[in-house]
Amino acid sequence: FKGGDTCEYLLSSGRFLGEKVWQPHSCMMHKYKNSEAKNCLIDKHIVFIGDSRIRQLFYSFIKLINPQVKEEGNKHGNIPFEDKSASIRVDFLWYPEVNGSMRQRIKTWTEGSVAKPHIIVAGAATWSIKIHNGSNEALMQYKINITSIAPLLEKLAKSSDVYWVLQDPVYEDMLSESRKMITNEKIDAYNEAAVRILNSSSRNSKAKVKVFSVSKLIAQETIMKSADGLHLPESSRDTNAMILMNVYCNKIMKPIDGSCCQPQPPLTLIQKLAFCFFTLSIIGYLIINLIHRNNFRKNKPCTDLESGEEKKPATSTPNVSTLEMLLHSFCKLGLIMTYFYLCDRANLFMKENKFYTHSSFFIPIVYILVLGVFYTENTKETKVLNREQTDEWKGWMQLVILIYHISGASTFLPVYMHIRVLVAAYLFQTGYGHFSYFWIKGDFGVYRVCQVLFRLNFLVVVLCIVMDRPYQFYYFVPLVTVWFMIIYATLAIWPQIVQKKASGNCLWHLGLLMKLICLLTCIYFLSYSQGAFEKIFSFWPLSKCFELNGNVYEWWFRWKLDRYVVFHGMLFAFIYLALQKRQMISEGKGDPLFSNRVSNILLFISIVSFLTYSIWASSCKNKTECNELHPSVSVLQILAFILIRNIPGYVRSLYSSFFAWFGKISLELFICQYHIWLAADTKGILVLIPGYPMFNVLVSTFIFVCVAHEISQITNDLAQIVVPKDNSTLLKRLLCIAGFFSGLLLFSAVQDQSRH
Predict the structure, then answer these.
(1) Does 443 lie in the same domain as 550?
(2) What residues does the NXPE C-terminal domain cover (predicted)?
(3) Euclidean distance between CA atoms 475 and 460, whole angstroms
(4) Phi and psi at residue 164, in whole multiples of 5°?
(5) How far apart (Å, rounded) are the C-alpha atoms in residues 141 and 129?
(6) Is residue 328 part of a domain?
(7) How far, in Å, CA of 603 to CA of 596, rounded?
(8) Is cis: bond before 495, omega within 30 of 0?
(9) Are residues 478 and 581 in the same domain?
(10) Is the pLDDT score of 710 beyond 50?
């Protein structure tokens, strides 16, 4: 990686993804909406000065501000444009040749009495070639004229953004007879002269005229679609205008998916404190490690010179202390978080936009499916949704979601709807798993709650601190955390009804069903009362956790999208465990779940339901309408899958160890992808090895999976230390954690105040 300013890459290099999507080298380009363009250019004056090609660029640029603009007016004259609502002025000045007239116009802006434009886009050459029939004398005169203009442009560049647009190639076969002298050879000569003179001038000046050369690359791919061989097709002009908008506006608007021309964000107070903490942890671990090594050398067995036998030391090496394990975990975590920061906050590694094709999504899906089937093994137990099976389920769903994210498949609605079912299935497992635990074990102790909350939230809390992101940004973790607390509250409040108590009296089952009906009523009310929902989560300090961009709407939308599926998971667990208790299902190895007749009927209904949902999702036309139906119908495909997977005894007794391995680290994979596999907070793709997309994905994926696995181990190690089983010690730790979060809220408030 050469380093340097990403603006240079945006203005000079890139490639097409597909036919119309332009990918700058090393950075991501934001697609500006009209409202964003107006906010960026408010009270600005922009001037385009040059020939008919610059006029085309002018029209494409003002259409980003107002799409209703028509290309009317005198083609060989000045054209003004004004947006009064945002006080934006954009002018096109007709100067088809680089000559004394253009020089005089530019000179007026350098004089103190005249207001300077904020942005100047200039360029011309084809008229000089045409009028002078491509003569060498015209080229010499062009060099003289641009040499006289260059110092004026440099002077303007001290206070304005000045761009010189190089000439695009032509499609010589389509040129009219009056333009046949405009050849690509001549255009290259004029471009070479302009670049050499402007670069020479900039070396003698602190300011710099930016050479807009990327238009040449775009034209090389698209000029054959030109109507006359000279002017670019509309899509190419629009791409050039969008590049100009990114060059100027990204540093002002700071869009997440526009990494080009964005400076590295400054370290916040909390980030600096986190850096100090991890540095001290690394130093502390190294010191303890050196002390232990030194002690080991002192206690090392030595050889008795007389007998030739080893003498063992009197004391054995002590076990690893809690402090050493703690420092070791934070040491590893500190190094991993440094990698996170370098990947997605420092301008060190490249980032690229996503581009969806059917092959980029479906080929990897087939590949992992083959791998998963290849690693088939026998399960240790043959119960419905046993641990190995649920790990397998989480694993293949997580891999599909990862492929969905990196391929940009959210733009393809049928795929989006099926992925929504996978997210719902995760939440279904949350309801099923936690309900089963509390129902069977009856353990409502603080230790269990703290263990679950720590394992779910540890990584996200660290990332919120290191990556300077709100908690709600990692939306899935807040979602499963809140649902866990809802499940806990539902079952823990009086009367506590568990399996042991209910087995003595069937009325307790009725009591539990009443609890579940109350929960369903609350869910229904909150889903249709946005105001009540927002009031609950707008109270401080809850608002600090659930606000995104200053409001909790995003949190309400995410919660509402899968509002019933956790309840469905709890209900399924209750029914299944009741049937299991009464021995109404057969879970022996190789045995169908029910009698052959019932099993066949249920299997047929499940397959039909599964396919029916897939057909409906594939025929979906409107995302909003489909999202409205999704909470009510997603459970059909989830239940259909569970029955298909568990009714046949042979299928139930097998699982894929490949998928199960990924399932054990599925939460870490889901969170880590935000910053070290994808980029720009999931909007783009991390590029460690530019120029080799497939090799880059292999390398970044390997690192990403290793890091996720390591973080999973660190979380498990720290959970044993931070959340001990002893209640008195746990209470002290909880007080320390409360103090930590109080300090975090205080520093966050100071940070927000300094930003404003």
Answers:
(1) yes
(2) 22-90
(3) 10
(4) -105, 115
(5) 11
(6) no
(7) 10
(8) yes
(9) yes
(10) yes
**Position 670 pLDDT exceeds 50:** yes
- Long-range contact list for 528-531, CB < 8 A, 24+ apart? 530/556
Cβ atoms of 146 and 194 within 8 Å: the answer is: yes
Do 113 and 236 lie in one domain? The reply is: yes
Let me know: does 55 contact 79? Beta carbons within 8 Å. Answer: yes
Residue 3 Rama label (left phi>0; alpha psi -120 to 50; beta): left
| Cα–Cα distance measured from residue 270 to residue 299, given in angstroms and rounded to the nearest whole number | 43
Residues 6+ apart with CB under 8 A from 143: 193, 197
In the chain, the number of structural domains is 3
Contact 727, 446 (CB under 8 A): yes
- Helix, coil or strand: residue 242: helix
Residue 29 is assigned to a structural domain of this protein: yes
Length of the chain: 756
SS (H, E, C) 217-236: HHHHHHHHHCCCCCCCCHHH
Share of the chain above pLDDT 90, in %: 80
Beta-carbon neighbour count of residue 202 at 10 Å? 18
pLDDT digits (tens, 9 = 90+) for 345-401: 888 888 999 999 999 999 999 999 999 999 999 999 999 999 999 999 999 999 999
| Residues contacting 499, CB < 8 A, separation 6+ | 439, 440, 442, 577, 581
**Between β-strands 161-165 and 119-123, what pairing exists: parallel, antiparallel or unpaired?**
parallel
Q: How far does the chain reach from its first CA to its final CA, in angstroms? A: 35
Residues 361-369: contacts with CB under 8 Å, at least 24 apart: 361/403, 361/404, 361/407, 361/409, 361/412, 361/415, 364/403, 364/407, 365/400, 365/403, 368/396, 368/399, 368/400, 368/403, 369/396
> Under a CB-based contact definition with an 8 Å cutoff, are residues 664 and 712 in contact?
yes
Say which amino acid occupies 357.
T
Q: Indicate whether 23 and 170 sit together in one domain.
A: yes
Q: Which residues pair with 352 in a beta bridge?
A: 685
Residues 6+ apart with CB under 8 A from 701: 677
Domain closes at, from 253, 280, 310: 253
Cα dihedral 590→596→598→603 (10° resolution): 60
Structure-block tokens of residue 225: 């679609």
Mean pLDDT of 229-233: 94
Find where tokens 């929902």 sit. 533
**Inter-residue contact 664 to 391 (CB < 8 Å):** yes
Q: Which residues contact residue 427 at a Cβ distance below 8 angstroms, ignoring those fewer than 6 apart?
A: 479, 480, 483, 562, 565, 566, 569
Which H, E and C letters describe 102-165, residue by residue? HHHHHHHHHCCCCCCCCEEEEECCHHHHHHCCCCHHHHHHHHHHHHHHHHHHHHHHCCCEEEEE
pLDDT tens string 509-521: 999 999 999 999 9
pLDDT of residue 207: 61
Average predicted confidence (pLDDT) for the chain = 91
Cα Dmax for the chain: 109
Torsional class of 25: left (φ above 0), alpha (ψ -120 to 50), beta (otherwise): beta
Which long-range CB contacts under 8 A does 438-445 form with residues at least 24 apart?
A: 438/487, 438/488, 438/491, 438/492, 438/498, 439/491, 439/498, 439/499, 439/573, 439/574, 439/577, 440/498, 440/499, 440/577, 441/498, 442/496, 442/498, 442/499, 442/500, 442/501, 444/488, 444/491, 444/492, 444/496
Q: Which residues are catalytic?
A: 52, 228, 231
Q: Taking CA 614 as the corner, what is the angle to CA 613 and CA 620, rounded to the nearest 5 degrees?
A: 90
| Same-domain check for residues 425 and 564 | yes
* Domain stop point among 253, 286, 312: 253
pLDDT tens digits for 643-660? 999 999 999 999 999 999
CA dist 295 and 316 (Å) reads 11
CB atoms within 10 A of CB 506: 9
Question: Residue 186 contacts by C-beta under 8 Å, 6 or more apart in sequence?
Answer: 129, 134, 139
- Closest by CA position to 430, among listed 328, 566, 242, 581: 566
pTM: 0.91
552 and 428 in a single domain? The answer is yes
Count other C-beta atoms under 10 Å from residue 316's C-beta.
8
